[in-house]
Amino acid sequence: MTEVVLRVEGLCKSFSGVHAIRDLSFEVESSEVMGLIGPNGSGKSTTVNSLAGTFPVTSGEIVLTGTSIQHLPECERVELGLARTFQTANVFPEFTVRQQIALGCEATLKSSPLSSVFGAEYRQGESEAIEARMHDLLEITGLLDVADDLVGTISSAQQRFLMVATALASEPKIVLLDEPAAGLVSHERKTLSDLIKAIRARGIAVLVIEHHMALIMDVCDRIVVLNFGSKIADGTPAEIRSNPAVIDAYLGEVSDA
Ligand code: ADP
Ligand code: MG
Domains of the chain, with CATH numbers? Predict the structure, then answer.
């Protein structure tokens, strides 16, 4: 049975007079991959930042599994099950891959401060549940072989997958991915598609922003299209692909190269 994980109602965000998002409403269900597409500057990143709590919204409601979250700080939204990645790789180069993912796990360890994740308790194997989760995350993101490498030494594609692993480490109900395929080559995009489908198979909802249309059409169950901050379409990939307003505003200009 599906449930609505995220409901956005009448969301507006202005930056000193610039209406970045205008009256945006949509829902995402559990085990659903929703794409958010549109031209540059159409408000995609602003939507993700508003959902994640990077800045306050101007008006509107954001409901995560029944709880209004628009007034909550970022960290509380993570605890309630909303995780995100950034448009650019956002990692600590001096950490190992394993340590970086452990930072994501921290969100679900309310009784256990960060020091215990890295400290003696962790090394003595008292956090077996974390170890098991860590192994699973390393495996589905293809990072097992580089688990003990420094983040600064792995490839940029691996750093992108690491951001997804870190987001998943907080055991989210929904994960927001802002342009996860940026800079990836063809076989890495295939790995990303498989990863997004694996996330969905675990019952986690995904909201993905991407310009790469072949990837979007492959992974998404539904797509919302923004133009000048407003929603101009909401439908299946087949519906979106043949929607004249979408072709006119956006699809006519993008390629899958
Ligand atoms: P997209 O991700 O679709 O390319 P953005 O959400 O980044 O678009 O931007 C939407 C609009 O909001 C643009 O006009 C952009 O200039 C503006 N904008 C985004 N972030 C800020 C900010 N922090 N301050 C001022 N204007 C912003
Ligand atoms: Mg953006």
Answer: 1-81+172-257 (3.40.50.300), 90-170 (no CATH)
Distance 235 CA to ligand 1 centre (A): 24
**pLDDT band per the 50, 70, 90 thresholds, residue 85:** confident
Cβ partners under 8 Å of residue 192, min gap 6 = 160, 161, 180, 181, 184, 215
**Structure confidence at residue 112 (pLDDT):** 45
The pLDDT tens digits for 219-253 are 999 999 999 999 999 999 999 999 999 999 988 87
Pair of tokens at residue 159: 């750093």
Residue to probe by mutation, ligand 1, list 13, 37, 46, most atoms within 8 Å of CB: 46
Q: pLDDT per residue over 165-221, tens digit each?
A: 999 998 999 999 999 998 899 999 999 999 999 999 999 999 999 999 999 999 999
96 DSSP 8-state letter: B
Question: Quick check: CB of 70 below 6 Å from ligand 1?
Answer: no
44 lines ligand 1 (CB under 6 A): yes
Query: Atom 11 of ligand 1 has which residue's CA nearest to it?
Result: 20
Structure letter (DSSP) for residue 208 = E
Query: 24-33: per-residue pLDDT in tens?
Result: 999 999 999 9
Ligand 2 mean position, distance from CA 41 (Å): 7
C-alpha radius of gyration, the chain, whole number: 18
* Minimum-distance ligand 1 atom for the alpha carbon of 48: 6
Task: Report the 10 Å Cβ neighbour count for 137.
Answer: 25
Q: Which atom of ligand 1 is nearest to the CA of 87?
A: 2
